[in-house]
Design brief:
Blueprint: H1 10-21, H2 25-34, H3 51-57, H4 64-76, H5 91-95, H6 102-109, H7 125-135, H8 140-155, H9 170-174, H10 179-190, H11 212-222, H12 232-248, H13 255-270, H14 277-292, H15 299-315
Length: 328
Amino acid sequence: MIAMPPLIPTEQWHALSLAIARGDAGQVKRLVEEQNLDVNAFLDTSSWIPILMDTLLSNGFVSETDRLELLRWLLERGANPNVCGKGGYNCLHIAVQQEKYLPALELMLGFDADVNVADADGSNIIYWAIQAFLLRRLEPDQRSALLRVIEKILSLGADLDHKNRFGMSARGWLEYSAPELKTLVARWESRKPSVRQPFTQQPVFPVNLHYPELALRIWKELVPASGPAGTVQGELLRAVELLREAAKNKENGNRKSNKRMAVFVRKTLVGSGVFEGKDNERIKADTRRLMKTSRPLQDDIYDHLVDSVCIYYNRNQTLIPYQAPKEA
């Protein structure tokens, strides 16, 4: 329910990041397998890039063949090339913009590539690929490779008419492109292909959270898949996130239940003795707003309460049993 991507645990991310930086594929594989790491997890809360992207960008590999071997290993284990990092770019966006990554791009296109995901500027990968064919000085073999990649991107349902935030599209570049590319596109369009809509659910990065790793740990360890948590610490976080989700989805039918959760959060945090002065007043103000409105509030209100739950957890690491109140 917390709208943030999975994170490599703190005790493992440094070793994994170092192995990727060194291009040590064997060590990366050992760490992933021995620690049962999620291949779609992000490395830390400063860079917010997934393992696959860190592998693509690493300068530590002796050769591109070594990089490709590890990329394939991660992809075959479910790594998703379509997921964007905090900067608004995914692995496809990065790979299409540098000649040395063309083999990696061609590889990733074979793993359910979502070719119409827009980058931070609103451009999809066919935009960058056609621009590259026109503007880059490519050797004949690179030109052939890029043409082959463009054909694959098109076959995956690329949208030539998608406009970025500057009002430019791939078709605009195509107008000035070489005859062989125009012929390729014309042949593709003669088959009346359909454009595939973006299908990847992108992560939301917790820019306002001060304790994202702890919040995620509490969520994973103390909040059940359904129903109330067995501890006060878990139920506090569950209540805040239920209120956030209900507001965003405009699920305010059970106003009584929502108010009860907000009261529980306020009474528990304020009555704990953990917070004083302005901190207590902020918690009271935030929960009061949750009780009075049926409209979604700014995320910073929910994030502040999540941070407060994390502070409460740090001061009360002995888990307190929670008993759900009986419905009236």
